[in-house]
Amino acid sequence: MNTQVQAAVDTWANSLSDLVPVLKGIDTTTQMSDIRDAYARMLAQNPAPAGVTFAALDMGGVPGTLVTPDELKTDAVLMYIHGGAYIVGRPDGYHGIGGNYAKMLGARVYMPDYRLAPEHPFPAPINDTLRAYEWLLEQDIPAHNIAFAGESAGGAMVVSVMVAAKSKGLPLPAVGSAISPWANLEHSGASMSNREGLDPLNSKAVLDILARAFLGNTLANHPLASPVFADVTGLPAILVQIGENELMLSDAMRLATHLADNRVRVNLEVWPAMFHAWHFYAGMLAEGQQAMESSVRFIEAGWLQANR
């Protein structure tokens, strides 16, 4: 990482220092709303590119944001599912990556603002995102013209929401791109230990606390919370991108293997020395731009294949 990226990652790593004390009940004065506002402001320092506009909308009862590029090249659309451990995050913090996808794809991008834990634990975020997908279908956007992408918890939901849609009998989107997916809330992968201290953004102890805040009384191996345990048969092609320094590395690789074992077309990209969701810094990090371009190519190829 260059000094600019290092400074940005350090800011990100420090942005949630108040969260664990609040979740553990140690800090009873700091409000979750204040933590979420600060997190959104931090992510918003990754600016949207020129040539895109943003508008609020209602996605069937789920608030959302529509990103529209000035140069629209396709009727196909992307639903971008933000991360934040199911506890923080909202679309206004994701104008950078959402805008980059919209501009690079030449496509509209929809970003649902799903409910967050611990006030709304599992399965509320997944249910809301599934409802947003249903709403897209209700707008007469055919499933073969829809792609999913997301990072971290949103990367896991790229798969989980497809599984939920399949269980409900809905047509599945054309393709998915899972960035740094938080795919196994049991945290049993080897990298949870051997990348400890190398991952600049996460620690296993904190991830365990965040997972429990999201899960409530649900077991960590619930297939919609941890898609490494889900029935993924029949899902469309999925790209899994993971940074080699991430605690989530082994479980992301496990997700890719699980998809492949169940005859899902999957591409796995492991990026040496990269950190969690490095795509956010595409404007200042060559590997971030390259990973975005790879994701865009995969999505475009999925749309093309689905429309043959």
Topology:
Blueprint: H1 3-14, H2 19-23, H3 32-43, E1 52-58, E2 63-69, E3 77-81, H4 95-105, E4 108-112, H5 124-138, E5 146-151, H6 153-167, E6 175-179, H7 191-194, H8 204-215, E7 237-243, H9 249-261, E8 266-271, H10 286-306
Parallel strand pairs: 3-4, 3-5, 5-6, 6-7, 7-8
Antiparallel strand pairs: 1-2, 2-4
Helix pairs in contact: 4-10, 5-6
Short description:
This protein is an alpha/beta fold and 308 residues long. The protein has helices spanning 3-14, 19-23, 32-43, 95-105, 124-138, 153-167, 191-194, 204-215, 249-261, 286-306, and strands at 52-58, 63-69, 77-81, 108-112, 146-151, 175-179, 237-243, 266-271.
Overview of this protein structure:
By secondary structure, the chain is an alpha/beta fold. It has a single domain (3-306), classed as 3-Layer(aba) Sandwich (Rossmann fold), CATH 3.40.50. 39% of the residues lie in helices and 16% in strands. It is built from ten helices and eight strands. The chain has helices at 3-14, 19-23, 32-43, 95-105, 124-138, 153-167, 191-194, 204-215, 249-261, 286-306; strands at 52-58, 63-69, 77-81, 108-112, 146-151, 175-179, 237-243, 266-271. Strands 1-2-4-3-5-6-7-8 form an eight-stranded mixed β-sheet, with helices on both faces. α4 links the parallel β3 (77-81) and β4 (108-112). α4 packs across α10 (286-306) and α5 packs across α6 (153-167). The radius of gyration is 18 Å and the shape is globular.
